[in-house]
Write a structure and sequence with these properties.
It is a single-pass type I membrane protein. The chain is α/β, with parallel strands linked by helices. It contains 19 helices and 23 strands. Helix 6 runs antiparallel to helix 12, helix 6 runs parallel beside helix 15 and helix 11 packs across helix 12.
């Protein structure tokens, strides 16, 4: 019993000691990267893009790239390949990256150090012609306007986000950890007077192995293979939910055409992206548009509640538009197939708000489609729309201008409606021809670019209320102080007192002290911007109702109410805490806000090579991490291995000799069997 209890006591103790010793040894050998953002693999109908490491991670000797001319050391002259290249953002160019990609046998990986301020010359890793093959202009719809033949919308686009790389790539903040990595390089690897550095050398290992390969059809087929008890999913479709709300309630159980219903769709996109996975600030490409639409919806709330307009306004915030218009193509598909409370015949027109960061100006451009306007009835409705918009703009001290009649629409969700039928519509942007956004779909499309700067020493609460230069224009236009708070919440930190008030308590814990990531993500999860816009739209367009928490969360006015849930949504939000109190006063918001699936129809139809719909998927992975350590010379490693093998052989021989002579070495005199005492 004593032995057994001792075993129970000492075995866990020995395990803990062994674990601590192992951790201690590991911490002495490795320095782990704390803030590292990977480039991940995406796939579509034809190919794969992005980056990945080998299954066990890729290891290389650190080399800090100081200039493009210094590439020869990595690609040709350096004696210790492969190299893990550390480069500042000024060298993250197409020229440098294509050379590293071509010489990938000597490149183990790339780490880009994100700067603390935006590059003045601009940077966009997207293509020059966004969503080139998924818009309306094609061989069957005015080929002269297809493939951005008339206007290169994103002239600074270098296409880096749409290349495939055979090595891992990470982004690091320019902080103390990054400086420690560079110091490790200068202490051990730096070339002095052309001489080779001496061992030990500073090395890095990056893990970002991706499970999916080739294209979406291949990975979706592998998802369907169920030979094992635990089948592995290797990729997931990109997607999320669209956020919708109408000025007149719609019955979502009654699908299809509504006789006598005429709807104007007011649209904006919710998503953005950059080269690296978890960095998609989308300040101008996404936030400027949907914040404007939210402010407009709030401004129109009282007007539409007091006197309903002749036409219903359907506010639509589309997700996944960066990746071949996932959200808008889904809504068009649902309308066309009687899976939505309206159909395309109910759509009178579309007004889309795109990139509208004004940068101190008060001028916007109204883009239209020259092809559909050849139809006289469509052209007449478009001209009415423009006149009405101009009339409203005069009251708001805004200048609206039209580009050349022959210029096509910029990349926009409205193009997916035009693919279905000629619908009148306009797209409002801050550019006449090419984008004025110098950082389109990049990590630099951030609050700094919209000139959202704050005086030093302001508390977070004071920053929330502070009217930046960017917010002044919006507040002047919409006469709403909430624009300031929305811009701060999306582009600086979502964890603020106003956002805390208008969200449910179970979501409040997910608010972060950082800018919102506008990457669409995969269909298994709701993204942060989708949920935030859902709650904001309900708060800005809905009404507070005096009902219990139980009834609110069960989508009803009272216990006998069976119908309200079909036309309204109810949200129990945590509210604000009164002065001198820590208890929040929660309440119920009733609105017409709904979430609508933003998943490409290609995945419902299982048409993974579709040319009509988005087919983008994201590879799964098991581990994303990086670490640095010192590595010995190859000769020393071989010597250590040789000594180890020699010791092993000697140990085996000695064991054999001792075992064979055991009867001699370990014999002892035996007592007579009959001995007595």
């Amino acid at each position: 019993s004593l032995v057994f209890s001792s075993h129970l006591v000492f075995e866990p103790m020995f395990r803990c000691i062994l674990l601590l010793l192992c951790n201690s040894v590991e911490n002495k050998i490795y320095v782990h990267l704390n803030y590292s953002i990977p480039c991940v693999r995406l796939l579509n109908a034809t190919h794969q893009i992005g980056c990945q490491s080998s299954l066990s991670g890729d290891v290389g000797v650190l080399h800090v790239l100081e200039s493009e001319a210094n590439l020869d050391w990595v690609l040709q002259n350096g004696p210790n390949p492969p190299y893990m290249v550390i480069l500042d953002s000024t060298l993250f160019t197409r020229s440098v990256m294509m050379k590293l990609k071509t010489g990938s046998s000597r490149v183990a990986g790339v780490v880009v150090v994100a700067p603390s301020s935006n590059p003045a010359e601009g940077f966009s890793p997207h293509t020059t012609c966004p969503n080139e093959n998924s818009g309306v202009y094609s061989e069957s719809y005015d080929p002269a306007l297809a493939h951005c033949n008339v206007t290169k919308w994103n002239p600074l686009g270098n296409g880096l986000s749409y290349e495939e790389y055979d090595f891992p790539m990470f982004s690091l903040k320019d902080d103390n950890d990054t400086q420690a990595i560079k110091q490790c390089y200068y202490d051990h690897n730096h070339v002095v007077n052309g001489s080779s550095p001496r061992y030990p050398l500073c090395a890095m290992q990056l893990y970002s192995h991706m499970s999916a390969v080739t294209d979406t059809a291949t990975c979706m087929r592998r998802n369907g293979i169920n030979f094992s008890l635990n089948p592995e999913t290797v990729c997931d479709p990109l997607g999320d939910f669209n956020v919708l709300a109408s000025t007149r309630p719609l019955n979502y159980t009654d699908k299809g055409h509504k006789t006598g219903e005429s709807v104007v769709i007011a649209a904006a996109r919710l998503d953005s992206r950059s080269f690296f996975f978890d960095i998609a600030p989308g300040a101008e490409s996404a936030a400027s548009g949907f914040v404007t639409l939210l402010a407009a919806a709030h401004a129109l709330r009282n007007a539409t509640q007091d006197a309903q307009p002749n036409r219903t306004i359907l506010y639509a915030f589309f997700q996944g538009e960066t990746f071949d218009y996932i959200g808008s193509s889904r809504l068009v598909y649902d309308m066309d197939n009687k899976q939505f409370p309206l159909d395309l015949d109910n759509v009178h027109s579309v007004v889309e708000i795109g990139q509208v960061g004004l940068h101190g100006e008060s001028k916007l451009w109204v883009h239209t489609d020259p092809v559909s306007r050849r139809n006289s009835s469509v052209n007449e409705e478009v001209e009415k729309l423009i006149r009405n918009l101009n009339s409203s703009a005069l009251n708001l001290s805004l200048s609206l201008q039209e580009p050349s009649f022959s210029q096509p629409l910029p990349p926009s969700s409205f193009q997916r409606f035009l693919r279905a039928r000629p619908i009148p519509g306009v797209v409002i942007q801050n550019h006449n021809s090419s984008f004025t956004n110098k950082y389109y779909e990049s990590m630099y499309d951030n609050a700094e670019y919209l000139n959202m700067s704050y005086p030093p020493n302001l508390t977070p609460e004071e920053q929330l209320e502070y009217v930046t230069d960017a917010a002044k224009v919006y507040e002047f236009v919409f006469l709403s102080s909430q624009v300031t708070q929305m811009l701060y919440g999306f582009l600086v930190k979502s964890n603020n007192s106003w956002f805390q008030q208008i969200v449910p308590s179970d979501f409040a814990i997910h608010l972060r002290d950082r800018p919102t990531n506008f990457y669409v993500g995969v269909t298994q999860q709701h993204s942060e911007p989708t949920l935030l816009v859902q709650y904001l739209l309900a708060n800005l367009t809905g009404t507070t109702v005096n009902i219990t928490q139980d009834n609110c969360q069960n989508q009803r006015e009272d216990e006998d109410d069976k119908e309200s849930k079909h036309i309204y949504s109810y949200m129990w939000v945590q509210g604000a805490a009164p002065p001198n109190s820590t208890e929040r006063v929660a309440f119920c918001v009733r609105s017409t806000v709904r979430l609508s699936k933003a998943l490409s129809p290609a995945f419902d139809l299982e048409e993974y090579t579709s040319k009509d719909y988005s087919t983008w998927t994201e590879s799964r992975w098991k581990s994303i991490k990086g670490r640095i350590f010192l590595v010995a010379s190859h000769e020393l490693e071989m010597l250590t291995l040789g000594v180890g093998v020699a010791v092993l052989i000697a140990s085996l021989m000695l064991t054999y000799i001792i075992s064979s002579k055991a009867d001699i070495l370990f014999s002892s005199g035996r007592e007579p069997t009959a001995a007595t005492y």
